[in-house]
Amino acid sequence: MSHLRQDPIHQWPVSEAGLTRRVVRCLQNAGLTTIGQVRALDASQRRRIPRFGPAAARHIRWFFDWTERLETDRLLPADLRAWLDAFLTPVERVVVEQRYGLDDMLFRPQTKRRTFREIATTTGGGSPARIRQLFQRAIHKLQSRLARAAARLPLTACQQQIVAAGSVVTSAELAGWRGAPWLADYQPWGALLLWSETTGEITRRHDYFSTLPAAELERIEQRLFEAVARAKEPVSVENIAGEIAPRLARVLLDRHPQVDATRDGRFFLFPDGARPLLNDLCGEGDELAARYNALVVPHSRREPSELARLRKP
């Protein structure tokens, strides 16, 4: 999956491309709003841009070196760690690793992300406010067009692994992903959470991740919910999924707050869908009736005064 084919580099807005804020201000003040316009200038023309000094020139050269790599598929980061190293300073990378638990020795999906205060205490990197600033700056870099495009190799490997699992993977299932080459020994849950918040190519909902867009997942979930509601009895995924992959349907229904499930994999809505289930239970034989009779006092053994009280509106 290539960002370049979807959105050519020359069309990137300079404000989203991955340039520093200082360089962006210089270019915008000069009336340059796209990377194509900046590319059209030679080095001498760029030097004539007001406030465009040597540091800005070096940054532009770094940026265009990366765009050349992207266009030629040359020397791109092969894994998540290499991607972070390419776009973050060492301090920023440590903050991101700590925040997402990427270096956690234990697999702990769905745990709370470490607070900025905890990271500040662990790393000795300054105040919580300073850690927050570093984190926000790092995420801003990783969300740039350049960084997202450069994530092509590890991100594609991640997407292919999710697709192979049925386009959806739950947090608990990610334990089996440890050691995947694209992870570079990072924790899979934190890695997918990072991808979902920076690239826009991975969707996180509830406790699962998917390659499908959030709007598509919501549409499928609503369709499945309506099918379960129409059934008015416990129904298996195979009977309602249609062209939807059964595994995807099962994961979505399992996590829908209004849908209940039986242990044999059928889904229903309470109370309508539960009535046939209760009727089946009550009609399974004499054992349930015997247990009921053992707990309830028969009418024939009740005192007349008690019967009158029970029947009184």
Task: Provide an overview of this structure.
The chain has 313 residues and is mainly alpha-helical. The protein has 3 domains: 3-72, DNA polymerase, domain 1; 80-206, no CATH class; 213-313, no CATH class. 54% of the residues lie in helices and 6% in strands. The protein contains 17 helices and 6 strands. Helix 7 packs across helix 9 (128-142) and helix 8 (116-123) crosses helix 9. The radius of gyration is 29 Å and the shape is elongated. The protein starts with a helix and ends with a helix.
Using only C-alpha atoms, the radius of gyration works out to: 29 Å
How far the N terminus sits from the C terminus, by CA atoms, comes to 69 Å
Principal-axes shape call:
elongated
Fraction of residues in β-strands: 5-15%
Low-confidence stretches: 1-6, 306-313
Total of helices: 17
How does the helix and strand content classify structurally? mainly alpha
For the sheet with most strands, the description reads: 3 strands, antiparallel
Query: Can you give the helix content as a percent range?
Result: 40-55%
Secondary-structure element pattern, one letter each: HHHHHHHHHHHEHEEHEHEEHHH
Strand order of the largest sheet: 1-3-2
| Domain unit count | 3
How many beta-strand runs?
6
Overall residue-averaged pLDDT value: 85
